[in-house]
Structures are given as C-alpha cells and as structure tokens.
Amino acid sequence: MKSLEEIQQEPHEQLINRVWIHMYRAHRYLYPKMEKHLRKHGFDSPFWHEALVEIERAGEDGIRSTDLLSRLHMAQFNMSRHLSRMEKKGLIERVPCEKDRRAHFLRITPYGTQANKEIWPHYMEIIQEELNDKLTKEEAFQFFSTLIKLYR
C-alpha cells in the first residue's frame, strides 16, 4: 500500500480516480450504519430526514416533487418510492397543483414536523459517532466545501 506522500505525487487524473473510489467506499461504509441506527427510531432511510427538511423549508405551500428531486440529486424512481412510504406513515401529504393536475406539491404534516424533530438527535448521534474523532474542525470545513463543489 502506498503512503500518503507517494499518493500525493500521483498524476491529477489518478488522484481524481482515488477520490471517486473512496467517496463510494465511504458511502458504502457509513450509509448502512446510519440506516440501521435510524430504523431503530422509526425512520426507514436517512433520506427521509433530508427530504423532510427540504419540504419544511419550502413553507406551507410545499414543494413540487421535481424541485425536491433537483435539490436532493436522487433518482426519480428511488425518490418516488421513498415519498410513497413517507406518505403512508403520515409524514408528508401530496396536494394536487391547481394549475397542472399532473403535478403535486409535497407538504410536511404536523406529525412529520414532530417526527423530524425527534429523529434529529439520533441522526446527529451517529454522525458524531462516526466522524467527530476522525476530522478536525478545519478538515471538516475543507471536506464540506470540497463536497459542495461537486454538485453546485
């Protein structure tokens, strides 16, 4: 295995490939832990919290599912499945758009607002457990600012 100093000397293209591979590896390592932890507390997926936050931010009018899709960068079929399950659990409601009957607005329900507030400490707990000791404040900020460059 190469040292970090050796890897740092690799060509840019090779380093970018390493970034890609290790982003996926980190996701495969962390996501199941988050999912398992949240399921113990009634949330089927970490996506649910993120979706509820965005739906709540949209205000009382709600958000079109296509707008939510573009904010969360998720495959449409996958998001539709999650939204249907969230609706069944009473976390959100779909309201037909008056101007375009094919479109729907998503609104968070009072139960969804409460459930999202209750899940946040559990969400934060697993994030802190997995990342807090691994990244300094400066590293966390650098990592954050680098990641958002990838999708903005």
TrEMBL record:
<protein>
    <submittedName>
        <fullName>DNA-binding transcriptional regulator, MarR family</fullName>
    </submittedName>
</protein>
<dbReference type="InterPro" id="IPR000835">
    <property type="entry name" value="HTH_MarR-typ"/>
</dbReference>
<dbReference type="InterPro" id="IPR039422">
    <property type="entry name" value="MarR/SlyA-like"/>
</dbReference>
<dbReference type="GO" id="GO:0003677">
    <property type="term" value="F:DNA binding"/>
</dbReference>
<keyword id="KW-0238">DNA-binding</keyword>
<dbReference type="GO" id="GO:0006950">
    <property type="term" value="P:response to stress"/>
</dbReference>
<dbReference type="InterPro" id="IPR036390">
    <property type="entry name" value="WH_DNA-bd_sf"/>
</dbReference>
<dbReference type="InterPro" id="IPR036388">
    <property type="entry name" value="WH-like_DNA-bd_sf"/>
</dbReference>
<keyword id="KW-0804">Transcription</keyword>
<dbReference type="GO" id="GO:0003700">
    <property type="term" value="F:DNA-binding transcription factor activity"/>
</dbReference>
<dbReference type="InterPro" id="IPR023187">
    <property type="entry name" value="Tscrpt_reg_MarR-type_CS"/>
</dbReference>
<dbReference type="Pfam" id="PF12802">
    <property type="entry name" value="MarR_2"/>
</dbReference>
<keyword id="KW-0805">Transcription regulation</keyword>
<feature type="domain" description="HTH marR-type">
    <location>
        <begin position="16"/>
        <end position="152"/>
    </location>
</feature>
